[in-house]
Design a protein that fits this description.
The protein has 13 helices and two strands, in the order ββααααααααααααα. With 268 residues, it is mainly alpha-helical. A hairpin with a 5-residue loop joins strand 1 and strand 2.
Length: 268
Amino acid sequence: MRPGIGLADVQDARGRTSRNLGGEAPEAGLNLNLPPRPTPAEMDMKQEPSDEVKKEFVQRIVEWYRQYGRHDLPWRRTSSPWQVLLAAVLLRKTTAQQVASIYPQLIEKFPDPASMADADEEELKKIIQPLGIEHQRARLLKELAKKLVEQYGGKVPKNLDQLKTLPGVGDYTAREVLCLAYQQAQPLLDRNMIRILERALGIKSEKKRPHTDKTLWKKAEELTPKDPETAKAFNLGILDLANKICTPRKPNCPACPIKSICKYSRSK
């Protein structure tokens, strides 16, 4: 060793001794604590699921829906684009049970956009009053029906961009109509699918409003089966699983059909 260069012991925060070449004292207050290592569960959540896991995820959701889904909901037993669109608009800020209680009367009274466009607003409000905010709902329904009559001859368009020009119709509702009424394989990304994708597969958006995240929409599209009927079962299965089992609080993991491949369930 050359003269003037010595070895000084430096003890780190864990009590281990290392050698400081040069004999210099370590900086005062130097914090050598290392960040905690991620747990296996945390590492699992960040790992991209394999294609095999994704395929199994979709298959189990579809099979579960076909056996346990809410097939009794009246708007799921029709292929009428108007009736599907009507239900989609009504289902906001209320429950499926509440909409189901007034839906048969509503479609009997207003079986098409033309009849809704000509509806007496007070009569319409009386029918939908159990859903709440009936003034806003009635105004929106009439505006929607009038635009369908004036611009589309009283028909519900089957084009995504055209649907999104309608009052009260955004990306999700437009795709819902295409998937459920027009037999198109479309992803339906709402807060329910967002929650299940994050819990089960660790697929998470970094945006504050995940439903506007194009990357997340792309991932949902990749998961959605190409066969229209299977895509419909998958999307409705996600909705029903979120309603019955994978709830926002206290999910019933033991009863879940995807518990063995779900990252959230395995981390518990």
